[in-house]
Amino acid sequence: MSSPDGPPSPMKEKVDLAKEKAAEYAAIGKEYAAAGAQKAKELAGKVLAKDESGGYLVVNEAKARYQAIAARGAAFSKDILDKADISQEDLSKLHRIPAVVSLASLVIGLLLIFSHYNTGWVRGMMWINGEVRPQRKRP
Questions:
Q1: Which domain of life is it from (predicted)?
Q2: Is-above-0.70 flag for pTM?
Q3: H or E stretch at 4
Q4: What span, in angstroms and rounded, lies between the C-alpha atoms of 139 and 131?
Q5: 65 and 72 in contact (C-beta within 8 Å)?
Q6: What tens digit of pLDDT does each residue of 26-75 get?
Q7: Which of 2, 30, 68, 104 could anchor a disulfide with 6, C-beta 3.0 to 4.6 Å?
């Protein structure tokens, strides 16, 4: 180490240089943090800004886009149905399809449950050496 009135030591110079660099990097970090905070405030302000109807801008833009897409889809489906000559009355009859399908599945399910322990069909379909096995007569 050197005396206060003598030349500075190399260690003191390195410490001072490190302090200067740290202060410089801290200033750069503060600038980036301030810029990031400003950008976040701008984005939050954009999301949270209310329009004249009282809704939020981003939500209203999304609603408008959804309604535009839904309107195009409705017009497209109406055009397709008109070309296929399908009326709204025909479409209103389609509500019966799930009832018919569920009734059929119920009947099939019950048949499967009741035939679970009935093995008579197995005896009729048994093959031995490529030929149907003859039925035995019960005494």
A1: Eukaryota
A2: no
A3: none
A4: 24
A5: no
A6: 888 888 888 877 777 776 666 555 666 766 666 677 778 888 989 998 88
A7: 2
Strand-pairing partners, residue 131, are 128
Q: Phi/psi of residue 115, each to 5°? A: -90, 5
Which distant-in-sequence residues (6+ apart) come within 8 Å of 60 by Cβ?
Answer: 51, 53
Q: Are 49 and 56 in contact (CB under 8 A)?
A: yes
d(CA 93, CA 13): 91
Q: Identify whether the C-beta of residue 46 lies closer than 8 Å to the C-beta of residue 58.
A: yes
Report DSSP letters for 52-83, one per residue.
TTSSBHHHHHHHHHHHHHHHHHHHHHHHHHHH
Retrieve residue 121's tokens: 């069909």
